[in-house]
Amino acid sequence: SGGSPTPLLRTEPGKEIWRGWPAFLPDGDHFLFSVLVSNNGVTALETRVGTLDGREVATLLRGGVGATYAEGYLLFGSGGGLYAQRFDPVSLKLSGDRILVVKAVAQDWRTGALAARASDNGVLVIRGEPKSDTQLTWFDRDGHHRGVAGAPDSFTNFSLSPDEKRVLVTRRDPLSGQNTLWLIDEDRGVTSLVSDRND
Question: Could you give phi then psi for residue 107, rounded to 5 degrees?
Fold first, then answer.
């Protein structure tokens, strides 16, 4: 019916980094959301249950990325794969073993992003994790292939030095989602780590 949006749940500074990725449960009052409590690995990502009156009522899962509910299951990412585990949205209880649905789905625990969604009619849509086969390739101005730079890997971005002898690249780990900086030295034929910080 419209109206002004009001805060529902706030991140607790000093205890958490962010809250996000809400997803309603069938009753329309309870919802799932993710909380990153620290940068100390994937287990710092928690899936919690809240209510529209601003209460937190349960912590369901640790280490699950982008959890959402679909037809009696909790769907979530873990270790690069997409998993399903039986979930009762009334008692808010998980049961049974987690089941691997898809081996490789794009996900990142640091942001909570999971490239998978299920509809109410049983259709599942996913985006697979990029393969580690990006090859930086030289072409001249006429489009002719002139060689390659470094070995194939899961590179996402690059910057060429002014002398065109070195390439600074971002490498994304397919499982952890961590980005690191590497330097490809064309003259020496060496690829070396520059920084493994993720900020």
Answer: -160, 160
Determine the residue type at 107: Q
Phi and psi, residue 42, nearest 5°: -65, -25
The encoded tokens of residue 105 equal 């789905």
Which amino acid is residue 105, in one-letter code? V
109: buried, middle or exposed (CB in 10 Å: 19+, 13-18, 0-12)?
buried
Q: Can you tell me the distance from the alpha carbon of 62 to that of 83, in angstroms, rounded to the nearest whole number?
A: 13
Which pLDDT score, from 0 to 100, does residue 198 have? 53
Q: In angstroms, how far is CA 24 from the centroid of its own chain?
A: 20
CB 33 within 8 A of CB 48: yes
CA–CA dist 130, 136 (Å, integer): 15
The candidate with the shortest Cα–Cα distance to 75, out of 45, 36, 50, 47, is 47
pLDDT the model gives residue 179: 81
Task: Return the CA Rg of the chain.
Answer: 21
Measured distance between the N- and C-terminal CA atoms of the chain, rounded to whole angstroms: 41
Positive or negative CA dihedral for 92, 97, 99, 100? positive
pLDDT averaged over consecutive 10-residue blocks of the chain (199 residues)? 87 90 94 91 92 93 93 92 95 96 87 87 79 78 87 84 89 74 85 74
